[in-house]
Q: What sequence folds into this?
């Protein structure tokens, strides 16, 4: 170790990715790491190359990705051993790359991708030792020929996404090149005649490089190693002939071309595994494709394939795993496709499917993904008769235990089930069969009784004689065996059913030598070889001697050494685990006990030197000790998260308190939960629960917990202020300020794994999937450092070695000092199995609650005497409840939604709107765009811009490509509208559109509140749905106007005139009488799904987290009134602004005055009168953050639960299914009126498992399971649906 106790000179590699060094720069202590071999400073916000790395003379690999570096001058060129340099995603220009960089002898890897280079850096041709060169995603227009003259050892070359128009012919010198990527370059004049010279080439990507048969070689048969080719986006009319000469090709991408036919020579690709022909003009696949036995993925999306275009022999492709043919013209698929034994993904959405082969039921269990959406005429095929049997007892064949369902949700699909044979002939009558069987037995009984009795009697006598003789022979044999051989001492012993791999490694005892374990916390822990022969007097050890006998078989000798001052638990565990080691290895010898000072000669001969005794004990006892623990005083600021709370360490002083937050003060035996005057009580409850876990798991339930609320009296206030450093009486002068930034977000933790080798240390970062720390990342053999900025945790695995632990403690201290941190930052040692609650909160889903086994019962099976477990294993029926255990979909932010709306609206060229009036569609007035009525049908013709492809002919290269377009017709049907509108559209307007636009037309039918997200984006969150029908007053006036000219003609009708006149006034005057209108604005899961729906005017419908629009008319005429925009106290400001703008556009400002009213400031005169009087209403909408809707159905042939999207509505409640609704406080089981009894039973069990799982995962939100029926829903149920009303009834 270096002077001063530092370990920095021994560090060989360190990863400082995602640290913020923008203002402070990288730590200066980096220059002390003189042995550093690799360094990563990615995404650190630095602008220049750190000067500190100039002292790292042994540095070989340097990564500076995702920064703002403009120049590489200085420290980089002073690194003599540099081998690889990665500076992708920076701001480098040609002048910022020094020429001296390329004169380094050992430089083999350069990555300059995603920068601002317009030319090749000067001097690059001098880097003759380069093996990997990446210049992609720049603005380079030309590559000097001298680069390929000198850099002939290149193995990887990527110059994609540049502005290259040609390529140096000297590329033929790169005979060792294995990967060449030229994507997205206008290489029109590049003939590529040199391609056959690249004999070592394995990967060739030329996407969007204007390839054609004329600028490709005629034969590339010499490229025997070429396995990956990408020629997509080149407007090719056919697959080039030279591609068929590749015998070893494995992956071919020909998507986004104009290929209309595949040659029959495809059978030459015997090793092809992936074929991508998407977005071409294929009408059929050649029959020779069935000979490709190695093909695993076949993708032909967006072509013109029909049923006859798919070969019937496709079932011969035994290796096929993925078949994707979406957006084609398939009416059916060959039956052979469903017989591919390894098929896992079948994608057939947006076709013309009518049905599927019945064999689809045979592979339904092995399929991981089956997509059949947008096939409106498809009918699911019936099950074969043999498969339909047994559905009545499916409930008893499913294990609904929580453990089993969690295991099934994470397990992969089962293997392909054997095909069930279809029953032949008519089914037999079981009752008639029983009658015939009884009659037959009765007739034969008399004849066989006598014979059977005689035969049985004789057989019994013979069996008795044989049994006696066998017993005599057995006793004689056993006696003689005891005399001949003596029984081993351990033959009668039975090994306990233990998993020995929990104690010892898999390769233990497989290599001759000595292995030693020490006993710590009841478990053996392997120690380093350097400390062999040094024993602590207070510890116990297990010593294993492995050697080879004369016949080259392994032999083992096992000793357990006991120190004279060791505790009882260590003595017992050393003896127990010594026996466990013998059982694990299958050793024949006994275990030998060795005591300190009385060791045997065999034990002493194991070591080359004398053994040494060390005073004291190194390991901890497994018994609880009575010594007092010293807990440092720590103060944590609490931040709520989606799954719990986050504890942010702050300075332990009064100035850290903020009235808007909750704080936890840990004073050892006393834990205070401080709630600010403006803090949420829910956060306080979660913090209190966290404090209780800390007391129970870390303090043996000895800590007192006190909840202190700002401004309320409590006897523990003096002790609280004293713990924060205040003297008595000083708390009266304290004035707490709101100093915490509202936009503050906790620092993302970084997890390091400590690596130890022969004389060096490494500190790489662990890759965190999806940016979420999970417990399974921590492996028991390793030691990790978790850097949370204010807290640095050192996690020690049970099976980690002693030297790694010591090195991790040193590295954590260096890491704490290396980065600029606040004074209250500290290092905490954490051992596996004893993690504190503060450490667990950094991980997602870390819970110590034991999963409850919710095993079902089957008394009817048990009464038969059968083994219940064996019966369930044989009779288990497939069930899919995985959706119940998936996390809730995260809501989309407003920025992401705005970006999606901008992208979709940029592609929109025009939109024409029509509405159904009578029996025809008429143009929708401009002022009604964005306003929908639940009793109407609308048609929207949207024309989208599609960028054109550049022309293939070289002569026309100067002309700009013509833009293309695509038309999508959206048909919108209200909840109260009849299907006549859809029929009218299909027979009138749709045919006109098809004649105008042909294949470029796409029709999408939508129902109210089930709109396509792209369609809703066009209205920019101003989507208003009115109740009833539009312009009712005008439509009622038309028949009156038509009757007036007909009245004077017939004279006999004159006496009838006075009769109808007194009758019409009452009905005509009542409907137009203006009534108050109330609109509710709400977003479901995403701002893209924002709607303003009219509901019944009722004060009980208000909620403090939403915005409402209330129209109150004056008098009898609808020509004056007032419009209120009611903003809830907890509503979003952006939604409030949107509601105000929507109200201004809905009503004429000359007739209606607009007034914005905040909750609690409502005027007494018109507002409450218009809404029907004051009533109690909800003050929050916490259910919006928890609502989930699941559908339980048996339509797939087995019981499955699927989750609806976050934008669900009332119409998603299918009448023939059962639904599960979770609102965070209750779980409702909704029963449709046509749901079957089997589905109801299975849905009930599924809901119980779901509730049980939530009680484990979210103990702070206990759910109650409630049952509700269609038409009898409570307000707690209906409030989860936007615009709840009467159930949909379709008028025919």
A:
């Amino acid at each position: 170790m270096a002077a001063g106790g530092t370990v920095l000179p021994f560090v060989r590699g360190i990863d400082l990715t995602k640290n913020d060094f923008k203002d402070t720069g990288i730590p200066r202590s980096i220059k002390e790491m003189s042995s550093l071999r690799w360094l990563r400073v990615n995404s650190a916000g630095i602008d220049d190359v750190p000067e500190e790395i100039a002292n790292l003379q042994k540095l070989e690999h340097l990564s500076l990705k995702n920064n703002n570096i403009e120049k590489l001058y200085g420290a980089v060129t002073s690194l003599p051993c540099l081998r690889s340099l990665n500076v992708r995603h920076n701001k480098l220009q040609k002048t910022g790359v020094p020429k001296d960089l390329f004169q380094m002898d050992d430089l083999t890897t350069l990555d300059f991708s995603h920068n601002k280079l317009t030319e090749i850096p000067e001097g690059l041709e001098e880097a003759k030792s380069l093996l990997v060169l990446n210049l992609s995603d720049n603005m380079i227009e030309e590559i000097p020929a001298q680069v390929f003259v000198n850099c002939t050892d290149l193995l990887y070359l990527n110059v994609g996404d540049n502005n290259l128009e040609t390529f140096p012919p000297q590329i033929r010198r790169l005979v060792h090149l294995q990967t060449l990527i030229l994507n997205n370059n206008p290489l029109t004049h590049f003939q590529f005649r040199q391609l056959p010279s690249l004999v070592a080439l394995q990967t060739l990507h030329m996407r969007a490089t204007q390839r054609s048969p004329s600028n490709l070689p005629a034969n590339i048969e010499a490229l025997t190693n070429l396995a990956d080719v990408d020629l997509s986006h080149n407007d090719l009319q056919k697959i080039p002939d030279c591609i068929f000469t590749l015998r070893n090709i494995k992956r071919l991408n020909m998507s986004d071309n104009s290929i209309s036919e595949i040659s029959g020579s495809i059978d030459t690709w015997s090793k092809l595994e992936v074929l991508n022909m998407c977005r071409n003009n294929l009408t059929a696949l050649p029959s020779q494709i069935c000979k490709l036995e190695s093909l695993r993925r076949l993708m032909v999306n967006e072509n013109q394939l029909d049923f006859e275009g798919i070969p019937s022999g496709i079932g011969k492709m035994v290796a096929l795993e993925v078949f994707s043919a979406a957006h084609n013209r398939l009416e059916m698929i060959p039956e052979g496709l469903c017989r591919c034994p390894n098929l896992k993904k079948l994608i057939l959405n947006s076709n013309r499917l009518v049905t599927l082969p019945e064999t689809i039921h045979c592979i339904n269990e092995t399929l991981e993904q089956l997509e059949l959406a947008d096939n409106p005429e498809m009918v699911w095929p019936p099950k074969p008769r043999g498969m339909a049997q047994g559905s009545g007892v499916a409930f008893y064949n499913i294990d609904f235990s929580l453990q089993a369902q969690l295991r099934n949700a994470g397990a992969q699909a089962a293997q392909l089930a054997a095909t069930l044979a279809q029953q032949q002939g008519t089914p037999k009558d079981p009752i008639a069969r029983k009658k015939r069987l009884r009659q037959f037995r009765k007739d034969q009984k008399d004849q066989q009784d006598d014979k059977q009795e005689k035969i049985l009697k004789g057989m019994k006598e013979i069996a008795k004689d044989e049994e006696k003789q066998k017993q005599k022979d057995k006793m004689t044999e056993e006696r003689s065996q005891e005399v001949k051989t003596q029984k081993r001492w351990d033959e009668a012993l039975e090994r306990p059913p233990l998993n020995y791999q929990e104690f010892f490694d898999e390769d233990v005892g497989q290599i001759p030598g000595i292995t030693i374990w020490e006993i710590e916390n009841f478990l053996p822990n392997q120690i380093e070889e350097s400390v062999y022969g040094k024993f602590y007097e207070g510890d116990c050890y297990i010593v294993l001697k492995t050697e080879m006998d004369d016949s080259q078989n392994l032999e083992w000798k096992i000793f357990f050494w006991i120190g004279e001052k060791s505790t009882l638990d260590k003595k017992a565990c050393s003896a127990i685990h010594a026996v466990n080691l013998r059982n694990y290895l299958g050793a024949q010898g006994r275990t030998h006990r060795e005591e300190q000072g009385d060791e045997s000669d065999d034990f002493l001969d194991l070591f080359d030197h004398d053994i040494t005794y060390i005073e004291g004990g190194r390991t901890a006892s497994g018994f609880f000790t009575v010594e007092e623990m010293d807990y440092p005083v720590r103060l944590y600021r609490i931040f709520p998260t989606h799954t719990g709370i986050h504890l942010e360490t702050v300075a332990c002083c009064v100035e850290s308190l903020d009235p808007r937050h909750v704080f936890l003060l840990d004073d050892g035996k006393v834990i205070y939960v401080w709630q600010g005057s403006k803090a949420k009580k829910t956060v306080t409850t979660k913090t209190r629960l966290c404090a209780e876990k800390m007391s129970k798991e870390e303090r043996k339930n000895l800590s007192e917990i006190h909840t202190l609320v700002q401004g309320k009296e409590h006897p523990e206030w003096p002790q609280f202020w004293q713990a924060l450093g205040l003297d008595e009486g000083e708390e009266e002068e304290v004035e707490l300020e709101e100093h915490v930034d509202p936009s503050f977000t906790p620092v993302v933790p970084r997890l390091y794994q400590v690596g130890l080798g022969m004389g060096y240390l490494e500190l790489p970062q662990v890759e965190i999937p999806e940016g979420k720390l999970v417990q399974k990342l921590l492996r028991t053999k390793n030691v990790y450092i978790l850097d949370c900025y204010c807290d640095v945790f050192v996690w020690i695995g049970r099976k980690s070695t002693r030297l790694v632990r010591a090195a991790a403690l040193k590295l954590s201290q260096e890491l704490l000092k290396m980065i600029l941190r606040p004074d209250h930052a500290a290092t905490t040692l954490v051992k596996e199995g004893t993690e504190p609650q503060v450490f667990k909160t950094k991980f997602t889903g870390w819970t110590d609650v034991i999963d409850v086994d919710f095993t079902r019962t089957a008394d009817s099976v048990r009464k038969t005497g059968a083994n219940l477990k064996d019966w369930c294993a044989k009779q288990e029926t497939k069930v899919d409840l995985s959706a119940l255990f998936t996390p809730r979909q995260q809501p989309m932010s407003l920025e992401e939604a705005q970006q999606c709306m901008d992208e979709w609206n940029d592609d929109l060229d025009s939109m024409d709107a029509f509405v159904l009036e009578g029996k025809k569609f008429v143009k929708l007035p401009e002022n009604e765009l964005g306003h929908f009525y639940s009793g109407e049908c609308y048609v929207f013709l949207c024309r989208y811009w599609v960028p054109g492809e550049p022309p293939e002919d070289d002569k026309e290269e100067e002309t700009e490509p013509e833009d293309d377009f695509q038309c999508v017709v959206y048909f919108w049907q209200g909840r109260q509208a009849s299907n006549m509108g859809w029929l009218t559209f299909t027979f009138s307007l749709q045919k006109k559109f098809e004649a105008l636009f042909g294949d470029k037309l796409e029709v999408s039918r939508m129902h109210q509140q089930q709109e396509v997200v792209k369609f809703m984006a066009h209205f920019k969150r101003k989507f208003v749905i009115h109740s009833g029908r539009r312009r009712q007053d005008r439509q009622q006036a038309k028949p009156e106007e038509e009757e007036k000219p007909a009245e004077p003609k017939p004279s006999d009708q004159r006496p009838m005139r006075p009769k109808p006149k007194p009758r019409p006034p009452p009905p005509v005057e009542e409907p137009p009488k203006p009534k108050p209108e109330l609109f509710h604005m709400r977003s479901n899961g995403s701002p893209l799904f924002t709607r303003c729906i009219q509901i019944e005017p009722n004060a009980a419908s208000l909620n403090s987290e939403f915005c409402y629009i209330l129209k109150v008319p004056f008098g009898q005429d609808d020509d004056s009134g007032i419009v209120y925009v009611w903003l809830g106290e907890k509503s979003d400001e952006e939604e409030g602004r949107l509601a105000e703008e929507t109200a201004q556009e809905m009503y004429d400002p000359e007739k209606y005055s607009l007034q914005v009213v905040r909750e609690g400031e409502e005027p007494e005169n018109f507002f409450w009168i218009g809404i029907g009087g004051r009533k109690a209403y909800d003050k929050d909408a916490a259910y919006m953050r928890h609502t989930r809707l699941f559908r339980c159905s048996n339509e797939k042939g087995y019981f499955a639960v699927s989750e609806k999207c976050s934008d669900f509505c009332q119409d998603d409640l299918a009448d023939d299914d059962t639904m599960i609704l979770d609102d965070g406080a209750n779980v409702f089981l909704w029963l449709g009126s046509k749901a079957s009894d089997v589905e109801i039973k299975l849905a009930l069990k599924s809901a119980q498992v779901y509730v049980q799982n939530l009680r484990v995962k979210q103990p702070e939100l206990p759910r109650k399971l409630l049952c509700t029926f269609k038409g009898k829903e409570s307000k707690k149920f209906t409030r989860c649906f936007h615009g709840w009303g009467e159930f949909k009834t379709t008028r025919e």
User: Anything to note?
Assistant: The first helix runs from residue 145 to 150. Residues 536 and 614 are 5 Å apart (CA to CA).
